[in-house]
Amino acid sequence: MKNAILFLVLLLSLGPIGYAQSFNETQLLEHLETLSSDRYEGRRTGEKGNLLARAYIIKTFKELGVIPFGSKFEHTFTFEARDKEYNAANILAQVKGTKFPDTYIVISAHYDHLGVHEGAIYNGADDDASGIAALFAFAEYLSKNPPKHTVILAAFDAEEIGLKGAYYFVDKMKNTNILVNLNMDMISRSAKDELYVVGTPHHEKLKGIIDSFQNPTTSKLIIGHDGNDDQEDWTNASDHGAFHKAKIPFLYFGNEDHAGYHHPSDDFENITPAFYKNAVQILLSVFAQIDQNGL
Fold first, then answer.
1. Which helix (H) or strand (E) holds 132?
2. By its UniProt entry, which PANTHER family does this protein fall under (predicted)?
3. Rounded to two decimals, what is the model's pTM?
4. Which of these, 76, 111, 143, 237, could form a disulfide with 89 (CB 3.0-4.6 Å)?
């Protein structure tokens, strides 16, 4: 009896089965700090800092052992906006599925931000260096937990100029089978310790997964901002909007606007690290359920 009780205590201490911590929290914060440093000059699409961010993302994907999606990591495209032509690039990595290699789960975040204005650098720590650093945590997790479905780790460009990278990707993938998009944008800063999830009203199975979700952290996961409440509707607020328009199921994870949103004060020192680590763990846990059970 004592052994049985001891086993039960140990099991409960681990949290939900399969969701034990599986990424390096120190490296998560280091990647976020690096990408949101002044060296990257706000990562504005087409500018020097954006090119440096591309190189950093590719270098890190290689170090984490993930392979390119297609023949290369960097998928370039051009577009016109605001009376200007832009040269942009999505950075795409993949981890092959063990059971459904031709069905894709797309985990996404955008690496571009607003650049430099009137001498002030808009570093975009939360928006969205936080999502890119989380992509690296996913790469680390998947190296230890091979997925059933092929996972595309998508670092999109030009989100701040109309979700251009996401739309380009979705168009190129229109003849493939994308199971779901999990999009991360602004997941590292919440004074209320709250992470919102958007998208459940559009897919019954996703709603069931979130409704029954066993949160392995102390941070709150809240359904909202999806057009069914009196809050701002985020259904098309970030790159997941391109997937939604193509009728691809999505979940968007983010936090509410804060004082640093689209301001120079969106810096690394203003994030809430404990919340950020919990947010990444929540995302990994939701992903694991979808990958295991499908939609």
1. helix 130-144
2. METALLOPEPTIDASE M28 FAMILY MEMBER (PTHR12147), PEPTIDASE M28 DOMAIN-CONTAINING PROTEIN (PTHR12147:SF26)
3. 0.93
4. 76
